[in-house]
């Protein structure tokens, strides 16, 4: 329950008087406030700075240090205050959490000291408000990576007992670990450079024989270039095979981008070897040579900046996509317009719309080659609009990409978007779990049998004492309120699992082969009666009526749901008085098959426990089974 | 040939028109010219309504709470609603927090109307404590009166079956979906029937205030439950 609304609990309880004339059943007794304290100010002395607040404020969160009796350990008898030897600045935001219900992360605070304080005071960081959560997570991630980097530097000391394979892999990944690795690193770099330069120089026209036209060097010194190429490819092949051997996960290595680049770089050579000077395929062979330029990408292993650039482009995929899309739209529009505008003029270069694409692109990127120029007035007007809009369309997404690159370069993060998503999911899951704690405490306390009718009749004070010991007053009042609502409407609160259970089992009987899944069903209350009326049933003795609502003991192992919910047992009515009200319930609801409804969970649960077959004659066994498992929980 | 010339001229015209319109729009955006005399002004945002309650002595006189109790109540009230008044949405939010499993908004709506005695769409602190004073410290007569007022949605002095059905559905909505036994469509209706059988003495289809109070005073359960929340504050 949130902080502020704890103050409104008296109002909610008072408003419950509105249900009283409507209810048909007697209401449960209210939890008594034995020693009703006047609300008092308490003094919290944190390293000399005194904070004062009402005791009620702190009681709002009973599962933290300040809200529970744990703070009594810090009580100072002489000065009548609670003394904490902690940071007073961070304590401010801790105390504000009690006051306002929202936890804020102060920007000036160091992230680790903040987390320590939160851990000391028993507050989970996940409830930091949305306003500060981003900042908190960013700082935390930064910190974690910084720590990791520090650790990695320490890890460079050689670990003993590493296999050859592991040594090699480490050498490949971090060239600074050993001299051999460094040598290998520089040698491969050198050969990549040689290979690229060779490819380039091959096409330069060398000096020619007097009466022949100029030939590129590649054709003049074929043998030399071929030897150079062979040497480089051999080195690359050896390197690739060594990496493949050393990789801890070969499959993953083969799928990685760098290894694909390696393969693409050396493949043309081998294909060229295999294919002889066949006239037909020489054209294709020439094309394959183009791929040799991919060797330059091998440099990205050597350069951190190149990798970051590649990663930036990948992470800005959406902005790039938007840029491309808007450009395409604009190009098509303007090309069409220009084509129709220039159609009238003679000797126009704008022969078709695709031909106008070239003009549009050149104009929008402000290149302006001048090979295609509009001649009509309309064409000139639209051409100028085209160039103006081109500047805008291109200028807009570029700063985004630039800032992205700068951010990544400075922080040097890998896959941070993916990790943030996971973290967000985990955070929401945690908050959701703590929020569903709203309903489960009520159901849990029902199990403890604190709200059965015996209490009302006997009104034994020991049980009331037990009550206030296990739950805070606020909680017990809230539970009392919910219990009143149950009495008013004659229905009981159950948890999600059991509800799905009872609904699914009604369906399971019709379709024994179907495997139940938690997520599939939605309650359709209208059909419950009709479905249940088809069942056979044997009349159950009264004493076993309470026993049937124990399916969770058997079926929770079948469920893949939340662990916390699965351990909750529903203990509706464990006494004879309870049975009597059961009968009352049966009478007040006019729907006949309700009686049968009590049987089907038992039978179908039984069916579930034993597989998918219904074995009615075994019921007595099952009852005893139930009773067996029932007794530990049945404590009143 | 002619058509080609016309095409070219047509496009020329279009181009010039586009240019002129674009420049006018640009000037308009820049604020240099405006089209209509009654240009749209930024609507002055109504500042949040702030409300300060009457003095403590006055409230003490009007309600049956002591000074200390009023202080505690006001502190809680002000924390949740710093502006001093509760509007219906905030009211629904607060009330729904107590019933996490169901949907308390319909019932909160009826409650809001019951507390908002002057029907101005907001509940001030005075309305709040007046209502609480009746509920917690009032006589049984007053409490029943209040409950009747809650059920009588249109405040005409009669509770009809439709009104009661609305209230009943709102109450059952608060239970939510996960109940045992599973809530059926006709459960609220049946409950209303039971209620009317009990309350409607002359069987004229409506329940008046006298029938209501009469019947409740004869019912032991209801009488007992009226005293249930006396020690709340």
TrEMBL record, chain B:
The keyword NAD does not apply. Residues 103-138, 139-174, 187-222 form the EF-hand domain. GO terms for cellular component: peroxisome; voltage-gated potassium channel complex. Keywords: Calcium, Cell membrane, Cytoplasm, Ion channel, Ion transport, Membrane, Metal-binding, Peroxisome, Phosphoprotein, Potassium, Potassium channel, Potassium transport, Repeat, Transport, Voltage-gated channel. InterPro entries: EF-hand-dom_pair, EF_Hand_1_Ca_BS, EF_hand_dom, Recoverin. It is a peripheral membrane protein. One of its GO terms (biological process) is regulation of potassium ion transmembrane transport. CDD domains: EFh (cd00051). GO terms for molecular function: calcium ion binding; potassium channel activity; potassium channel regulator activity. Belongs to the recoverin family. This is Kv channel-interacting protein 4. It comes from Monopterus albus. The lineage of its organism: Eukaryota, Metazoa, Chordata, Craniata, Vertebrata.
């Amino acid at each position: 329950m949130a902080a502020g609304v704890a103050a409104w609990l008296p109002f909610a309880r008072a408003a419950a008087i509105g249900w009283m004339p409507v209810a048909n059943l007697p209401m449960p007794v209210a939890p008594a406030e034995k020693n009703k304290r006047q609300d008092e100010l308490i003094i919290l002395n944190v390293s000399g700075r005194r904070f004062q607040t009402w005791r009620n404020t702190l009681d709002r969160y009973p599962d933290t240090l300040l809200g529970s009796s744990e703070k009594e350990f810090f009580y100072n008898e002489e000065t009548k205050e609670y003394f904490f030897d902690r940071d007073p600045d961070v304590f401010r935001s801790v105390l504000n959490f009690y006051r306002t219900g929202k936890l804020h992360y102060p920007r000036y605070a160091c992230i680790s000291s903040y987390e320590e304080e939160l851990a000391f005071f028993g507050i989970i960081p996940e409830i930091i408000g949305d306003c500060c959560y981003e900042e908190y997570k960013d700082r935390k991630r930064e910190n974690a990576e910084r720590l990791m980097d520090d650790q990695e530097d320490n890890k460079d000391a050689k670990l003993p007992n590493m296999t050859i394979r592991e040594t090699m892999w480490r050498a490949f990944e971090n060239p600074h670990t050993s001299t051999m690795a460094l040598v290998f690193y520089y040698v491969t770099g050198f050969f990549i450079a040689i290979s690229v330069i060779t490819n380039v120089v091959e096409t330069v026209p060398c000096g020619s024989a007097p009466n022949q036209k100029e030939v590129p060097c590649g054709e003049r010194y074929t043998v030399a270039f071929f030897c150079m190429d062979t040497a480089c490819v051999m080195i690359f092949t050896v390197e690739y095979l060594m990496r493949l051997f050393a990789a801890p996960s070969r499959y993953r290595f083969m799928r990685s981008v760098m290894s694909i680049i390696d393969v693409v770089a050396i493949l043309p050579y081998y294909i060229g070897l295999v294919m002889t000077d066949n006239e037909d395929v020489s054209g294709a062979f020439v094309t394959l040579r183009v791929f040799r330029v991919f060797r330059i990408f091998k440099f990205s292993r050597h350069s951190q900046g190149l990798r970051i650039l590649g990663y930036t482009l990948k992470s800005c995929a959406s902005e790039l996509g938007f840029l491309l899309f808007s450009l395409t739209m604009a190009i098509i529009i303007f090309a069409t317009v220009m084509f129709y505008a220039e159609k009238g003029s003679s000797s126009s270069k704008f022969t078709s719309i695709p031909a106008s694409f070239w003009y549009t692109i050149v104009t929008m990127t402000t290149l302006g080659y001048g090979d295609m120029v509009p001649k009509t007035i309309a064409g000139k007007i639209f051409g100028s609009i085209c160039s103006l809009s081109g500047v805008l369309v291109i200028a807009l997404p570029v700063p985004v990409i630039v800032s992205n690159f700068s951010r990544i370069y400075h922080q040097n993060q890998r896959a941070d978007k993916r990790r943030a998503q996971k973290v967000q999911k985990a955070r929401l899951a945690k908050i959701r779990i703590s929020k569903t704690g709203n309903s489960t405490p009520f159901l849990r306390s029902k199990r403890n049998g604190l709200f059965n009718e015996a209490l009302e009749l006997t009104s034994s004070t020991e049980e009331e004492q037990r009550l206030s010991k296990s739950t805070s007053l606020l909680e017990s009042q809230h539970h009392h309120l919910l219990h009143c609502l149950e009495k008013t409407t004659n229905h009981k609160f159950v948890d999600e699992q059991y509800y799905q259970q009872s609904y699914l089992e009604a369906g399971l009987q019709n379709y024994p082969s179907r495997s139940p899944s938690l997520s599939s069903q939605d309650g359709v209350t209208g059909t419950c009666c009709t479905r249940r009326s088809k069942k056979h049933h044997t009349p159950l003795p009264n004493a076993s009526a309470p026993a049937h609502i124990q399916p969770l003991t058997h079926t929770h192992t079948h469920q893949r749901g939340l662990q916390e919910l699965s351990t909750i047992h529903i203990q509706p009515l464990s006494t004879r008085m309870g049975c009597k009200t059961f009968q009352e319930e049966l009478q007040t609801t006019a729907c006949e098959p309700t009686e049968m409804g009590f049987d089907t969970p038992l039978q179908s649960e039984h069916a579930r426990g034993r597989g998918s077959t219904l074995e009615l004659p075994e019921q007595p066994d099952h009852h005893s089974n139930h009773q067996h498992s029932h007794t530990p929980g049945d404590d009143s | 040939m002619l058509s080609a010339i016309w095409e070219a001229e047509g496009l020329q015209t279009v181009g010039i028109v586009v240019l002129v319109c674009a420049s006018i729009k640009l000037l308009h955006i820049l604020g240099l010219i405006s089209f209509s005399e009654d240009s749209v002004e930024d609507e002055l945002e109504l500042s949040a309504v702030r409300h300060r309650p009457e003095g403590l002595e006055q409230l003490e006189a009007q309600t049956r709470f002591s000074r200390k109790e009023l202080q505690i109540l006001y502190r809680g009230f002000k924390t949740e609603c710093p502006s001093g008044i509760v509007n219906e949405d905030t009211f629904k939010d607060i009330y729904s927090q107590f019933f996490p499993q169901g949907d308390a908004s319909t019932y909160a709506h009826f409650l809001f109307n019951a507390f908002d005695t002057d029907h101005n769409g907001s509940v001030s602190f005075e309305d709040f404590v007046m209502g609480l004073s009746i509920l917690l410290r009032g006589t049984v007569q007053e409490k029943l009166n209040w409950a009747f007022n809650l059920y009588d949605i249109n405040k005409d002095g009669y509770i009809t079956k439709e009104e009661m059905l609305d209230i009943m559905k709102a109450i059952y909505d608060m239970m939510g979906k996960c109940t045992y036994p599973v809530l059926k469509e006709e459960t609220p209706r049946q409950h209303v029937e039971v209620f009317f059988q009990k309350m409607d003495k002359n069987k004229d289809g409506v329940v008046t205030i006298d029938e209501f109070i009469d019947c409740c005073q004869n019912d032991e359960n209801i009488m007992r439950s009226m005293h249930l929340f006396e020690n709340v504050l």
